[in-house]
């Protein structure tokens, strides 16, 4: 038994995962085990970035006060 044997002698779980994904009625992007976490985190970061961009643009449009 070589040192790298555990890396390439693993059981094949493709059929189990294929059945899981194909039999799941959810949308494709919600079918994975942690997809709600990933989509939620992405959405929060995206919304934060858009709000920061909107704040920056409005600050540039308003400009500095002339006092």
TrEMBL record:
Under the heading InterPro entries, the entry gives:
COX7a
Q: Name one GO cellular component term.
A: mitochondrial inner membrane
Which Pfam families does the entry mention? COX7a
Q: Where in the cell is it found?
A: Mitochondrion inner membrane
Keywords noted in UniProt: Membrane, Mitochondrion, Mitochondrion inner membrane, Transmembrane, Transmembrane helix
Residues that span the membrane, as ranges: 37-61
Q: What is its main location?
A: mitochondrion
- Name it: Uncharacterized protein
Species name for this entry? Answer: Leucocoprinus leucothites
